[in-house]
Amino acid sequence: MASYDYASTPMAALGGSMRDFRVPSGADLLGRIEGFYRWQDARRQGGLWPFSRSTQTGPGATVSASDDSGRSMDGVNFASQDYLSLASHPAIKETAQEAIARYGVHSAGSPALVGNTTHSIALERKIAEFLGMEEAVLFPTGWAAGYGVIRGLVRSADHIVMDQLAHACLQEGANAATRNIYQFRHLDTDHCRRWLSEIRAKDAENGVMVVTEGLFSMDSDTPNLVALQDLCHEYNATLVVDVAHDLGALGEDGRGHIGLQGMIGKIDLVMGSFSKTFASNGGFVACKNRAVKEYLRFYAPSTTFSNALSQAQAAVALKAFEIVESQEGVWRRAALMRNVLDLRAALRRSGLDYYGEPSAIVAVKMGGEALARLVSRQLPRLGLLANLVEYPAVGKGAARFRMQVMAGHTAQNIADAVERLAASVAIATQEYEMSKKPAQSAAAA
Ligand SMILES: Cc1ncc(COP(=O)(O)O)c(C=O)c1O
Prior knowledge:
The chain is α/β, with parallel strands linked by helices.
């Protein structure tokens, strides 16, 4: 196990953020980005860069992983988004093997040309049926689906009203589509209404899209979908809901917050991903008629001009839907929720707090970035893999460890994780106090 020179942890590695390097200036496109690498490397050398890690095992309840300097760790895994533990399911593996044996590994074309396959067509049907919608259209990733549904439908004179915490794919799609973007305070339906009323008071001619998520991936909270869809009807706007994190994993029938809020078949556009619960890659947009599906296929550039899912990827997602819908899906979701509640209770007992409502995302509050980075250095040493989320992915001073719970975690995995996290926080708190001392004595001198 590598050790670090704790005493000489460079202050630069505890300060700064990715935001500092987002808009570099200078004529040399490649030269001007070097500052990012210097800052990142100071963090890396100090064991404070917990990103870009790789696993040597599958994404199970326990894992062997390495950081990007090659330092390895073994321990419990709360960093994978395989919420129902389907990635290692024998039927899923068998499905992938059969698809590869029969069709090979490549779709070799865009869905706008000849990239559709037996499985992708069946998968589109399955998604539409599962969500009570007429049609669905596939994308190569969830990111591409979020970007594509907005970029495909919204033009420069149109308006986008979106939750301020909407995922990067939705923000990027909005930025690419129009400059008329209005953010409403997180989950604040009244604020959304105020924007809609202001927009419609001035412009009845152009389109308005309202964008939110079923379950927010950093905060584990959910909007009032009924109220948002009503608002959209009232102001002639179109609602898009990203269900990447709740579809399949939440609600007794796995229909996530759309199901829990009685909105199956009632949301204008539902967008999602297979990369969490569905053990595959890919994304989709479900819609109410074929005209929308066909338009997206040819005007959403992230599908039109991109290679389609392979037979194996589509077959796995389809099989995952079958399990999600079955009795086994029900008990897997029940096991997941039991683990979520147990983890939340154990964290509380250890004096650790978390954000949001019970879901597979348990985001443990850390606060300041410096302390959170020091905790992230201890976690692998003590045997816990959990993702650090820090500014600008979340607010400044609101760093957190996003623990992602799986149905396959055991009670022991949860106990180990909480014990290791609490121990890491205790050690890091001391380190943090020490790291402030030289500055304090210099200030006093
Ligand atoms: C809310 C949300 N939407 C979309 C995506 C993108 O999904 P994918 O990983 O399939 O590209 C993610 C994944 O990070 C997400 O969290």
